[in-house]
Amino acid sequence: MPQTKFCHDYYLILEISQKADIESIRSNYKRLARLKHPDKNLNNPNATAEFQLIQEAYSTLKDPVSRKQYDDQYKPTNHSHGESSHTGSPKNTTAGNDYEKRSAERHKKLQELNEQLRVQERNLFDSNLHLTTLKRDAHRLGTEIDNIVRKQAAKGTVWGYVTSFFVGKPPQADEQKNELDRERLDKMAALKIKESIIERQHATSERYEKYILSIREEIQSIEFVINREKLAEEQRIKTERARAFWQKFEREFEESRKQRSKQAENQKKSENGRTESKRERQKKHGAGKRKDSAQTGQNQQTGTEASCHHKMWWDRIDCPTLCSHCSTMTSRFAFQCRGCGKKACASCRDSLKKKVRFQESKSYYEYD
């Protein structure tokens, strides 16, 4: 079976992408069929052509086999966001060139048909004119034959025979009768020939009329195809322009979004850097202040701590605190002696208590 030749972008006609599923195809077809139905567009002379294109596109794309065959042959416009979308792809150029080529061929054929139509209409006019002349000659022969018959009938009567003596002519009945008969027969033969010619001429005129009718039908058919393809081409160009516009808009929007995202990221990095630097400065400054405070407190409490035996209860401090014994910042909690107020971590507290007990036991033995 010969392969079908596709001439239209069915994806553009149904206003869908090349990757559209069957549900999208069906829904767009229903929407466009309601919108473009000829009964709803009585003032649009191209409504029928538009509706037929929509039906043709739907019947092709709804079937997977015919859709694959169409995609392999026609290769609709690529729906990508690349740079070539607004500069015109080779496929779009090819589609436009094919349309122009087909349009030129059809206009040439239309011109030839119009020329043939003019020739045949002239032939029909000449044929009808000749037919009118023949009918007029036949009518004249018929009238002459009727006159001869009336003349023969008048001479055949008694009154005709008697009146022939009053006009001063001798009766020549037989000779006149024969002459009238010959004349009548000659004219009847001529009339018969005329009628035969009229019949043939009438058939010729009918052939011209049928030929003219077939030419006009062919012209109407070509004009319908031209208008339909023109409509499809205008729709294709309109859709391509709209697609190019939106592709450009989306591309520029995406570039702007990336640029804004990059600027926001750089700003965030800059703010994070400033925050980190500030935190480091505050940390160093706080550590220095705590160290100075601890040193000052240590100097102030040196006398008290020196005389304290740390035997009293140590209160727990539930916050990070600088140990006054090992100068280490605890992570969660520390202990404070109730006697001298000394702050220490758990290990230093135990160490101080052991040291005091050891000194007391040493003093006890020395005393003994």
From TrEMBL:
User: Which PANTHER family does the protein's record reference?
Assistant: CHAPERONE PROTEIN DNAJ A6, CHLOROPLASTIC (PTHR43096:SF10), DNAJ HOMOLOG 1, MITOCHONDRIAL-RELATED (PTHR43096)
Q: Which residues form the J domain?
A: 9-74
A single GO cellular-component term from the record reads: cytoplasm
**GO MF terms held by the record:** unfolded protein binding
Taxonomic lineage of the native organism: Eukaryota, Fungi, Dikarya, Ascomycota, Pezizomycotina
- Pfam families, alphabetically? DnaJ
Q: Provide ranges: composition bias, Basic and acidic residues.
A: 70-84, 256-279
Q: What is this protein called?
A: J domain-containing protein
Biased composition regions of type Polar residues, renumbered to the chain: 85-96, 294-305
Q: Could you give a single Gene Ontology term from the biological process aspect?
A: protein refolding
Chain positions covered by the region annotation Disordered: 70-105, 256-305
**SMART domains for this protein:** DnaJ (SM00271)
Q: What PROSITE patterns does this protein map onto?
A: DNAJ_1 (PS00636), DNAJ_2 (PS50076)
**Gene3D superfamilies from the UniProt entry:** DnaJ domain
